[in-house]
Amino acid sequence: MFTFSVVGAQLYYGDMLYIMVSFLILMWLIKVLAWKPITKMMKDRSDKIANDIDSAEKSKADASKLASQRQAELANTRQEATGIINDAKQTGQKQHDQIIEDAHNDAANMKVAAEKDIEQQRQEALANSKKDVASLSIEIASKIITKELNADDQKALIDSYIEGLGKPNESR
């Protein structure tokens, strides 16, 4: 047998060969039993992390897209609300103007009608006054003709007619 000498220790080839074979068998067992499951686990973990990153990026993109859609919808809603408010203001202003115009027209019509009524009542009052003056004149003339009056009687007759003017249609 061959010997190796290392500072005071001797190794035998048989022992070396036994250690090498044992080491190779141990390495093969580690490869089969530990290395493959560890590499498979690491690969699975790497794939899971990559999928999670992809999923997160996709979720982020979807959230960004959804946020932009909501912003656009919010802007459209604001524009619609502004349009509705402006339409309501315009409609309210038109109704306000129409109500004021109708009120002015009604007031003008009422004024014209009142003026017509006043004029009619004035004409009726003038006609009644003319009738009263005419009937009074006829009564005075008939009484004067039937009775010859002295100054005191004339005064009393005039006073009685003046009092009769204040009372409506008593002696008429």
Automatic annotation (TrEMBL):
A matching Pfam family: ATP-synt_B
Recorded GO CC terms: endomembrane system; plasma membrane; proton-transporting ATP synthase complex
TM region(s), chain numbering: 16-35
Annotated Polar residues bias: 66-80
Matching Gene3D superfamilies: 6.10.250.1580
Subunit note: F-type ATPases have 2 components, F(1) - the catalytic core - and F(0) - the membrane proton channel. F(1) has five subunits: alpha(3), beta(3), gamma(1), delta(1), epsilon(1). F(0) has three main subunits: a(1), b(2) and c(10-14). The alpha and beta chains form an alternating ring which encloses part of the gamma chain. F(1) is attached to F(0) by a central stalk formed by the gamma and epsilon chains, while a peripheral stalk is formed by the delta and b chains.
Protein name: ATP synthase subunit b
Originating species: Lentilactobacillus senioris DSM 24302 = JCM 17472
Organismal lineage: Bacteria, Bacillati, Bacillota, Bacilli, Lactobacillales
